[in-house]
Amino acid sequence: MTFSGRHxxxxxxxxxxxFRVAERAVAAGATVxxxxxxxxRLDAACARLGPAADAAPIDTADPASIARFFxxxxxxxxxxxxxxxYRVASFRDADDETARSPFEAKFWGQYRAVRAAxxxxxxxxxxxxxxxxxxxxxxxxxxxxxxCNGAIETLGRALAVELAPVRVNVxxxxxxxxxxxxxxxxxxxxxxxxxxxxxxLLGRVGSVDEVADxxxxxxxxxxxxxxxxxxxxxxxxx
Length: 238
Ligand SMILES: NC(=O)c1ccc[n+]([C@@H]2O[C@H](COP(=O)([O-])OP(=O)(O)OC[C@H]3O[C@@H](n4cnc5c(N)ncnc54)[C@H](OP(=O)(O)O)[C@@H]3O)[C@@H](O)[C@H]2O)c1
Hints:
This protein is α/β, with parallel strands linked by helices. It is built from 8 helices and 9 strands. It has helices spanning 16-27, 39-49, 63-71, 96-117, 143-163, 179-182, 186-199, 208-220; strands at 7-11, 31-36, 53-57, 76-80, 121-130, 167-173, 176-177, 206-207, 228-231. The strands form 2 sheets. Strands 3-2-1-4-5-6-9 form a 7-stranded parallel beta sheet, sandwiched between helices. The chain has a two-stranded parallel ribbon with strand order 7-8. Belongs to the short-chain dehydrogenases/reductases (SDR) family. It holds the Pfam family adh_short_C2.
């Protein structure tokens, strides 16, 4: 699959899954713009990606920041939007603000990013939204987070209908051994990974490369639109 001459925007491209997608796209011939909140993280990522990459600040929790980010963008051929931070709590424990947090950050953050990118899309542009396999198999104590991922998957189908011929798809990963988890305390991470291994058909967590493969496929395949791909090792089925 060639991305030669194409321009990819990755919000949350400074680390984890977003960074690996940016790296793959550059290797395939694209130019990339990565966005995130930490300038240091963006600078370090750009240094690794080389001259085909540029960076700009964005906070997907702040609509004005999303608008500023896209004001500086000339053209979007591909958009991937994994950048979000939110809190997860049980239905019983979460106050309203905590319950709203994944919706504010992950749902509305991506909704607004696609909206702001709209005037910049090329005729054959493609979008991949970030969800999570909790949509299909809700964890014991994360009701609002699970529902938010379900809403993102429906948003992906709705935007595929409304924005065609722009293609819109969704990636819905299970637990992935990414920077996000490496930043958490080791005992917590190991317990979460062991539990996920028990719960998935393939008996392990996924890798960043495996999710990046799925995202690159959805971004680049011209006949894919309105789909959600579960990059989850069979977690949703067990
Ligand atoms: N890893 C998993 O197990 C897993 C499973 C299912 C779904 N996901 C989804 O995938 C997303 C990315 O995961 P990852 O593992 O790649 O995490 P990661 O390594 O922490 O990457 C998240 C990136 O997004 C940026 N970001 C965070 N909040 C942002 C905001 N408000 N505005 C703009 N950028 C923001 C971060 O940079 P700054 O902090 O500098 O902004 C960071 O570069 C998660 O948020 C989650 O929705 C992950």
